[in-house]
């Protein structure tokens, strides 16, 4: 599991910002443009600019290298304001994975199963998105590659809550450490989707507590992604965020923005389509990748 930020392009917007001989008016304009361009959003951008201007004045520095260090520290402090630790100590630890279709939910579950099995944990994956037969097959293929068991619906359109129940029941009977449950993501019927998620939660909770509800978000979607997150947070009891598609993206500011706006910690980062391309979220590594 790569913990390094080597392959990321998150820092693209920041590169070249600090090569001026001195901090001047242009520096602040360029920094604002870079932060907006990297998808920090207007509110976070203003907060960061205010903080840095105040610090630069207080320390009476005109050295761009100082500003760069202050920026990295400011980002790290904000990123670290939330606890990214996954709570997986129950046995079985039940993890619901939610999010709209297309964000990378299936891929993330495959990668997460691999993340866990490679650390010696046993995993069962439940395909509770029962309306998309192809999605069930895709999920099963990922899970099998990761060395996880799979619980599939017996027929297309089976009640998702019953598949979720069978998955946790399987984990309990076989002593499996972690049950990861995929859920539907059809956005067209938002209230239907939220009702379905609520039912899955209710049924699973009959067998024991839910350890984590992870919301998967596409890191390239900006404010739409934040709005999507808020709907799920309101209805689905989200405990952590997974941000995908950050490989090759210059939009890494989304991570800080969505965490600050929703108050929910980022727990995992997806950075590619391969089974190993998921990492835990490490604020100082991420801050360093944003300001290389
Ligand atoms: P779902 O509909 O939410 O289950 O989405 P999928 O898991 O099927 O993923 C949708 C597309 O996004 C697929 O082409 C994936 O390969 C791609 N994808 C998922 N995660 C990542 C990621 O972290 N980086 C990149 N570059 N692509 C990803």
TrEMBL record:
Residue ranges of domain SRP54-type proteins GTP-binding in the record: 92-292
Record's bilayer topology term: Peripheral membrane protein
Limits of the AAA+ ATPase domain: 91-268
InterPro entries according to UniProt: AAA+_ATPase (IPR003593), P-loop_NTPase (IPR027417), Signal_recog_particl_SRP54_hlx (IPR013822), SR_rcpt_FtsY (IPR004390), SRP/SRP_N (IPR036225), SRP54_GTPase_dom (IPR000897), SRP54_N_sf (IPR042101)
Subcellular location: Cell membrane; Cytoplasm
Record-linked PANTHER family: SIGNAL RECOGNITION PARTICLE RECEPTOR SUBUNIT ALPHA
Protein name from the UniProt record: Signal recognition particle receptor FtsY
Species this chain originates from: Microcella pacifica
Gene of this entry: ftsY
């Amino acid at each position: 599991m790569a913990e390094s930020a080597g392959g990321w392009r998150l820092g693209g917007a920041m590169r070249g910002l600090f090569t001026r001989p001195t901090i001047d008016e242009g520096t602040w304009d360029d920094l604002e443009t870079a932060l907006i361009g990297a998808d920090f959003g207007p509110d976070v951008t203003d907060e960061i600019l205010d903080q840095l201007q105040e610090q630069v004045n207080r320390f009476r520095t005109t050295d761009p290298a100082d500003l760069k260090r202050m920026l990295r520290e400011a980002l790290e402090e904000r990123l670290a304001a939330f606890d990214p630790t996954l709570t997986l100590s129950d046995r079985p630890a039940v993890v619901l994975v939610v999010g709209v279709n297309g964000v990378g939910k299936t891929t993330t579950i495959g990668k997460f199963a691999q993340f866990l099995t490679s650390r010696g944990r046993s995993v069962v994956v439940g395909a509770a998105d029962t309306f998309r037969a192809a999605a069930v097959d895709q999920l099963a293929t990922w899970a099998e590659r990761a060395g996880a068991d799979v619980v599939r619906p017996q027929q297309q359109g089976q009640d998702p809550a019953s598949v979720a129940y069978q998955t946790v029941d399987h984990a309990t009977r076989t002593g499996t450490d972690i049950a990861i449950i995929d859920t539907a993501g059809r956005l067209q019927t938002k209230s239907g989707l939220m009702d379905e998620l609520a039912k899955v939660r209710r049924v699973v909770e009959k067998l024991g507590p839910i350890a984590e509800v992870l919301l998967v978000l596409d890191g390239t979607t900006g404010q739409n992604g934040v709005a999507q997150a808020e709907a799920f947070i309101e209805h689905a009891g989200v405990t952590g965020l997974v941000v995908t598609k950050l490989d090759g993206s210059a939009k890494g500011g989304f991570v800080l923005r969505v965490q600050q706006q929703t108050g929910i910690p980022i727990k995992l980062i997806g950075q590619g389509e391969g089974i190993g391309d998921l990492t835990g979220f490490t604020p100082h590594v991420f801050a360093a990748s944003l300001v290389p």
